[in-house]
Amino acid sequence: MGEACVWVGEVYYRLSQHDSVAFYLDESKRWPAQATTQVRRMLVEGRLANVTGRQQEAAHRFAQALARAATLSDVGLLSLAYLEQGLFLTERGQLDAARSTLALHDSLLAETDDPYGQTANLYLHGVYWVNSSQYDSATTVLTQTVRQAEKFAYTRLKADALNRLAQLYRHRGEYDQSLTLLMQSLQIYEGLQESSGVANAYLNIGSVYSYTQRYASAINHFQQAYAAFQAMQDVKGQARVLNNLGVAFDYQGLPDSALAYYERALVFKEQAGDRIGAANTRFNIGAIYLEQKSDYGKAARYLEDAHQIFLQEGSPYDRVYSFQALGRLRFFQQRFADALAWQHRAWRLAEEIGAKRQIWKMHDQLAATYKAQQRFDSAYWHMEQVANWTDTLLREENSEQVAELETRYRTQQKDDSLQLSRQKVTLLAAEAEAREATLSWQRWLSGLALAVALLLGALLALLVQAWRRQQQHEAELAQTNRSLQESNQELARQKSRIENLMREQSHRLKNHLSAVAGLLTLQSHTLVDPSARQALQESHARVEAIVLVQQMLYGKDLTHLPVDVYLTELVHHILRTYGLSEQVARLVVMPTRLPADQVLSVGLIVNELVTNAAKHAFSEVRDPALEVGLQPESAAQLRLWVRDNGPGFVPEGTEPASFGLRLVQLQTQQLEGQSRWTNGQGTCFTLEFPQYG
């Protein structure tokens, strides 16, 4: 009777009905049971404790089952105990203990021929390599697991291996392949009515959608996963879903929603005894308070708690992120000496593990900290490193991908054109065959009087054959149309990826230009000659005008910019730079979008004229006033003007003396416009130019 209760408990565990599992396990203890039955009961108790967040109890039950199985002669049961404990230790991140368990299990399997044990052992090795971040080894072993599971029809093992493989492809950015494998595993789990497998598949599918910025689909799958884990009373699963929901809302710029999910996830993770998982969630919460809420007290509490756990149990990457975040916290708190200490630790560790992006970030943060301390030589050196690493990362990460995507895009276009040509040829051939059939039918009809019966039979056969050919051609045409629709969908996805990469390149270029502006500022601090310093400061202002264009390009439209928003930000920035109130300026700019190259030329002209007014015209008047306008002159012409109330100035001759006025003249030619200077109550520059795009 005790053995039957354990067997029923195992069935209810597969159905994720945990209350029934606990009931039948308790019932089994009321009856005498063999030693093998006791081991099986301990294993089921360990699984139940694991999924319901009682980690210490689970560890005790698995160790107890393994010790008891080692005293028996049942090799299959001992193998199962090794597998259960090895998987538990691996998932808990206790990799040294897991490696010892794997070695003992390998030795056991060497003495027996157990195909299930060998297949399950392959899967366990794959999970171990995944948790050890050895992704190439994990891919090889899990692929072997899928093949062997198919060979012996171990359907559940195959689904588990597919699920793990999909996570590896997601890590490598191969999201389409990851989704394909996850859909296969989901289909198997649903067929087996494996609730835990279905829940994990939904969770992983949502993660792929989140990585590809399809947040609505991601949240929908996360919610299905959460409902499944909740029905199973799986605390760890619920915590994982809540954390992923927090990440999805964090990426969408919704910090309050993200915090709500992170805090709920933290409660579940601490309840489940998941220290590393809890540390990661604390780090995410601290990052939001630091970067988006500017609540440095709360940020310090969460980040420092996470840091202590990362030091004891985290990976080198965890520690790099922790050092970096604590350095940024100290920077915001203006504790620059402490900030430098943390930032140098992060930099050194990033160099050791070859984390290129983190090296780039640390140079950028170190430059900012040294600049805040007015240690310009050190800041200058780190900014040079930022520029070098920006070039390196841009080349490594974008150039090959853009080239590959563009090549695939053009190749796909050529293939589609060829496919259309083949389709037209097929249709023409079908029409020719139909005409030939009709002519044959007419020829046979003309001899109807000579052989009525024979000709009728031949005519019927010919019509059936022609009908079948027509049906075949229609089926082929439908298949061709489906293929073309799939190709068009793939082209749309490729186009979207190219646009995302181009947008990222624009963002990186903005960062690069910002670094150049910073270098110019730092260099100006080292110059003694006032004219040279002024020249560098003017160059810095021109670069800032270009940076503003690049910053605005990092949006949905990569070709046209809102000229009213751009000129408002530019004029206010110049006035603030020269210590003037924004109220000095009156802007009469139409709310419209212009091509990026026209906006850049207009911005450079306005930058020069407003800067000249701030430096020269307003120094001689008591109440400075400035007017900047951009309005349509006609259907195809625009009129730009900049007017100040200074003493007045009109350039002499056709070749202006100063570099700034030559730049205005050059940009006027670039816009193909006509300009004029007038003096009244101050100076007014007017430019009429054609509107494109």
Structure summary:
With 693 residues, the protein is of the alpha+beta class. It has helices at residues 2-14, 18-28, 35-51, 55-70, 75-91, 95-109, 115-131, 135-152, 155-171, 175-192, 195-211, 215-232, 235-251, 255-272, 275-291, 296-313, 316-332, 336-353, 356-372, 376-446, 452-525, 530-553, 563-577, 596-617, 659-670; strands spanning 560-562, 585-589, 593-595, 626-632, 637-644, 674-680, 682-690.
Parts with pLDDT < 50 across at least 5 consecutive residues: 407-411
**Largest beta sheet: strand ordering:** 2-4-5-7-6
Largest sheet: 5 strands, mixed
Q: Assign an overall shape.
A: flat
- Determine the strand fraction and express it as a percent band: 5-15%
Which percent bin holds the helix content? over 70%
